[in-house]
Every structure is written in structure tokens, then in C-alpha cells.
């Protein structure tokens, strides 16, 4: 068997061609690396390990970018909410200050404060209805729902559904009663004066809470009933300055003490009764003093308390639990409450009612890490502010009303107490919780920048070409390719004569 010359020449020629093509491809790749700064323009050019690592790193960076975008959005929402909360807190503080400063105002001045309260109420409603990029910030999970009804609808209703002014009027009538003594009865038999609630379990009016002293010439004893009653008995004539105290509770929970003083002048907040010729006369005088004290309470403190009670009930209501209404008319003799309905009573809040408001708007800030920045307009702090402003805005203090100033003073005291209940949630508490969430997001954003920078460095190690190394390889490849060209050229000129 002979080996044909063309066979070997053909094989040599093929290998030479492939060698040239490979060298040229390497040369082109290196030139591209120098021009683009990348190791390869395709994932296949990075090899199996490099391509896999690159894809993993790019996926990780996309995830980190998603967290960063989520944080940026959350921080924008937080800034908007914190601005609103700061304004609400200032309005509440300003209201308390105005009420304290204007305690001795004329009815005209009191009316001006009420008008100002209506403006503040409108501002608070607008803040709680804040919409940022289609998202209601104080509506919990129901972010697409405006949480709070309009200020005018809440105060005045719409002709079909009753607003707060109507509920306050009904409640005041039911608490005041037909006798004007706050649903209490007062009678004297011999030497004993009896002050009693109209009926057992009556949800309206003034409630008897305590009585003292329980010993001495004049005794005061609280009996559980039913109905509860205080018996004031004159066993013998009291000495000038002896006192009898009866503790009562007003509809909104305010405690008040009626102090009766025997004979002579009395200190502020007390009522004097004359020492009669007989113990029976003294008992009759005690009844007169009690009637005077109760009439004064019913003219001032009771209307204020009724307004606060109605406002508190109104703003504690939800769509599933409408505010209670007085079973009437008539209202002054009503003995029960009925549940309002969405058809006859304004329901002020339409948002979410989660027990954990912050958790209603979670923001993803990292792997398995979230922070809550949700809020609901029906949180206790907001209810307190809304009820306080609305109770004042719903009232009026005309100069023709002799009790206007006292009602204003009593309502101011009730509002101040409502806004400063010890241990109750305040607007500042909500702001503090959101501030902590903001700080957490800020820290997470800083961590994300560091983590992303590390991922970018790792990706650069894989994808980017070292220009110095690429230049050296390019020079070496050019040198080899040039040598190959020269050797091939020599072989192409080789003949048998030259070979011999």
C-alpha cells in the first residue's frame, strides 16, 4: 500500500488552515476585549462556570434593585405621612392651648373658637384622606378607598343620614330629661332627702357614684337600688361648715362631686344650704341646694359631656358597628338606645380596621425582611382628635344664651381631658412608630448599596477583561500568527531543487 502525496499534503493544508482560523479568531476576540472592556459578548464565551455565576449575580442585583425601589417608595410615603401627622399634632396642641387661653372668653369669642375648630376639623379630614400616587395612606389595606367622609357630611348628614349635630342633639335631650335634673329625681320625706336615678340601667343622664359622710348629724348613703339612690338624712342639726358630698358621673365618664355646705359662705364649687328651725326644715333646704347644684350641672357640664359622649360614639363606629342612636322621639324620656344603620346614620370611616395598622402596608427591605408603615384613620389617637374638634365645631355659643360661656368652658375642659387621657394612644405615638420604621428602611438602604457594590465587583471579575493581560495576549497572538504566516510562505516556495 502506498501513501499518496496528495493525502498528506491535503491533511497538512487542513491543519494549517484551521490553525490560522483559530489564531485569527483569538486575535479578533482579544481586539474586542480591548475595545469593549468585556471578556466576552456572549454568555457562552464565559464558559459554563462563568455564565452560571454571571446569571446568578445579575439575578441577585435585580432583586436588590427591587428592594431599593420598594424602600424609596416607602420613604416617600413616610415623609408625606409624617408631615401630615406633625400638622395634626400641632392642631390638637393648638386647640388645647386656645381653649385654656379663652376660658374666660365672651360667647362671641367662644363662637370664634368653634368656627376655628371647624376649619381645623376640615384640615384633619383632608390629611387623613391623603392620596399619594393612587394610594390612600391612612386607609390600611383598603388603599384604593378614601377612608374618611367629608367634614360637612359628618357634621350635618345629607338629609337622609343623620350627622353628628343630630346625634348630639338627641343625646343631649336624652341626658337632660324632662325635669332638667339629668334624669335624676329629687324628693324629701320628713328629715330624709332622696336623690335617685330615674330607672335602673338607664343609659342616659347623670349617674350616682358615691356619697359621704356616712356618719355625723347629717348622713349620706348610696344605695344600689334598683335604681341607685342617695339618701341624705338629718338626724340632728348640723354645725355651720359641715359638708355633704355626692359623687356623680357624667355621660362621657367625667367624675364630678357635688359638695353641700351647712350655713354661711361657701368656697368655689360648693353649694350652701341653710340650717332650718327644725331638722325637717334643714332637710328641705338640702333638697333646694341639691336642686340648685344639679340644675347648674345640667345647664353647663351635662351638655358638654353629652356632646363628647355622642362624638366619641360616632367616631368609634365602623361600617360593621354603626353609632348608637337614642330610641325616640321623644328623646327626653327615652329609656333605651338603638343601633344606627348605614341607611339612617353617617358612617364616617370606610377604610380597613386591622388590629395592627402598621402591618397593613408592609415594605420589603431585604430577604425575609419587611417593615410596616401602614396607618388607619380610625386609630384611637385619630378618633380622639376628630371627636374633640367635631364636638366643638358642632356647637354654638350665641350671646343670647345665658349658659353659653359656662357650656363653652365645660366643653373645653372635656376636650382637654379627651386629648390627654393618660396611657391612651397619641398622634405622637403613631409618628414615633413610623419614624422607627423610617430609620430601619434607611439602614436597609445603606446595607443594600454595600451588598450591590459587592455583587458588582464579583460580576466585574467575571465579565470584565484585564486590558493589560488582553494586550499582552494580543501581542503574543499577533507574533505567533506572523511567524506562522512566514513559515507557511517559506514552505509554499519550497521545491525539490531547493530541497536538494
Please describe what this structure looks like.
53% of the residues lie in helices and 14% in strands. It has 500 residues and is an alpha+beta fold. It folds into 3 domains: 5-30 and 465-499; 68-148 and 349-442, f41 fragment of flagellin, N-terminal domain (Up-down Bundle); 176-304, no CATH class. It has a 4-stranded antiparallel sheet with strand order 3-4-7-6, covered by helices on one side. A 4-stranded mixed sheet has the order 5-8-9-10, covered by helices on one side. Strand 6 and strand 7 form a beta hairpin. Helix 2 packs antiparallel against helix 10 (427-463), helix 3 (107-128) packs antiparallel against helix 8 and helix 5 (164-176) crosses helix 7. The radius of gyration is 43 Å and the shape is elongated. It starts with a helix and ends with a helix. Keywords: Bacterial flagellum, Cell projection, Cilium, Flagellum, Secreted.
Looking at this protein, list some descriptive labels.
f41 fragment of flagellin, N-terminal domain; four-stranded mixed sheet; 53% helix; 500 residues; alpha+beta; four-stranded antiparallel sheet; flagellum; elongated; 14 strands; 3 domains; Flagellin
Amino acid at each position: 500500500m502506498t501513501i499518496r502525496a496528495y493525502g498528506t499534503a491535503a491533511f497538512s493544508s487542513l491543519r494549517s488552515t484551521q490553525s490560522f482560523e483559530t489564531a485569527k479568531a483569538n486575535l479578533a476576540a482579544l481586539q474586542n476585549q480591548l475595545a469593549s472592556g468585556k471578556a466576552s459578548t456572549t454568555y457562552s464565551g464565559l464558559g459554563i462556570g462563568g455564565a452560571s455565576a454571571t446569571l446568578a449575580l445579575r439575578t441577585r442585583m435585580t432583586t436588590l434593585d427591587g428592594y431599593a425601589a420598594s424602600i424609596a417608595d416607602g420613604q416617600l410615603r413616610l415623609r408625606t405621612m409624617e408631615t401630615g401627622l406633625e400638622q395634626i399634632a400641632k392642631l390638637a396642641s393648638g386647640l388645647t392651648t386656645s381653649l385654656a387661653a379663652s376660658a374666660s372668653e365672651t360667647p362671641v369669642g367662644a363662637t370664634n373658637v368653634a368656627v376655628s375648630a371647624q376649619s381645623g376639623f376640615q384640615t384633619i379630614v383632608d390629611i387623613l384622606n391623603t392620596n399619594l400616587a393612587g394610594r390612600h395612606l391612612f386607609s390600611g389595606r383598603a388603599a384604593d378607598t378614601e377612608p374618611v367622609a367629608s367634614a360637612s357630611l359628618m357634621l350635618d348628614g345629607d338629609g337622609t343620614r343623620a350627622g353628628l349635630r343630630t346625634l348630639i342633639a338627641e343625646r343631649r335631650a336624652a341626658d337632660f330629661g324632662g325635669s332638667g335634673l339629668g334624669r335624676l329625681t329629687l324628693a324629701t320625706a320628713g328629715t330624709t332627702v332622696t336623690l335617685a336615678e330615674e330607672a335602673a340601667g338607664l343609659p342616659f343622664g347623670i349617674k350616682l357614684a358615691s356619697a359621704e359622710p356616712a356618719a355625723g348629724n347629717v348622713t349620706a348613703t348610696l344605695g344600689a337600688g334598683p335604681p341607685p339612690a342617695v339618701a341624705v338624712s338629718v338626724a340632728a342639726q348640723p354645725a355651720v361648715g359641715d359638708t355633704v358630698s355626692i359623687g356623680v358621673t357624667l355621660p362621657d365618664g367625667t367624675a364630678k362631686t357635688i359638695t353641700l355646705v351647712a350655713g354661711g359662705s361657701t368656697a368655689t364649687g360648693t353649694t350652701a344650704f341653710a340650717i332650718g328651725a327644725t331638722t325637717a326644715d334643714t332637710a328641705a333646704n338640702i333638697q333646694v341646694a341639691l336642686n340648685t347644684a344639679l340644675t347648674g350641672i345640667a345647664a353647663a357640664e351635662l351638655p358638654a359631656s353629652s356632646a363628647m359622649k355622642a362624638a366619641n360614639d360616632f367616631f368609634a363606629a365602623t361600617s360593621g358597628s354603626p353609632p348608637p342612636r337614642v330610641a325616640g322621639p321623644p328623646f327626653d324620656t327615652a329609656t333605651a338606645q338603638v343601633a344606627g344603620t348605614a341607611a339612617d346614620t353617617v358612617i364616617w370611616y370606610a377604610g380597613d380596621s386591622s388590629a395592627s395598622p402598621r402591618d397593613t402596608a408592609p415594605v420589603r427591605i431585604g430577604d425575609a425582611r419587611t417593615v410596616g408603615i401602614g396607618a388607619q384613620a380610625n386609630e384611637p389617637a385619630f378618633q380622639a382628635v376628630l371627636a374633640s374638634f367635631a364636638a366643638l365645631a358642632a356647637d354654638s355659643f350665641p350671646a343670647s344664651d345665658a349658659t353659653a360661656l359656662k357650656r363653652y368652658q365645660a366643653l373645653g375642659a372635656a376636650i382637654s381631658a379627651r386629648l390627654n387621657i393618660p396611657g391612651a394612644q397619641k398622634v405622637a405615638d403613631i409618628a414615633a412608630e413610623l419614624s422607627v420604621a423610617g430609620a430601619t428602611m434607611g439602614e436597609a438602604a445603606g446595607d443594600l448599596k454595600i451588598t450591590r457594590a459587592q455583587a458588582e465587583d464579583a460580576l466585574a471579575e467575571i465579565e470584565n477583561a484585564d486590558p493589560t493581560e488582553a494586550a499582552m495576549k494580543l501581542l503574543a497572538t499577533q507574533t505567533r500568527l506572523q511567524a506562522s504566516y512566514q513559515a507557511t510562505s517559506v514552505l509554499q516556495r519550497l521545491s525539490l531543487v531547493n530541497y536538494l
